[in-house]
Write a structure and sequence with these properties.
Elements (H helix, E strand, L loop, with lengths): L2 E6 L7 H16 L5 E4 L8 E4 L2 E5 L7 E6 L8
Parallel strand pairs: 2-4
Antiparallel strand pairs: 1-5, 2-5, 3-4
């Protein structure tokens, strides 16, 4: 990831992908560029990699639960 932002969201009513979308909207508003990569704790997603819209969501055991490291990766994480 080239540029990133740490986001915290512990809302029990929202799923992880809704939280990623909320963080992405804030990121886009703040930095003027949509993010395409987000790292979360492995307990937050069933697979090591997933995606929501244009954002690749990857697990990383160094992330704390309910924290999101979201930003821009220069190359796409998934191939179409």
């Amino acid at each position: 990831m080239d540029i990133g932002m740490l986001w915290f969201d512990n809302d029990p009513k929202s799923d992880v992908f809704s939280k990623v979308q909320k963080a992405a909207a804030y990121y886009n508003q703040k930095y003027g560029e949509p993010p395409n990569l987000c790292f979360v704790h492995p307990s937050m997603i069933p697979e090591p990699k997933a995606e929501t819209g244009e954002i690749a969501v990857c697990s990383n055991k160094t992330m704390l639960p309910n924290h999101f490291w979201i930003g821009v990766h220069s190359q796409p994480m998934f191939k179409a």
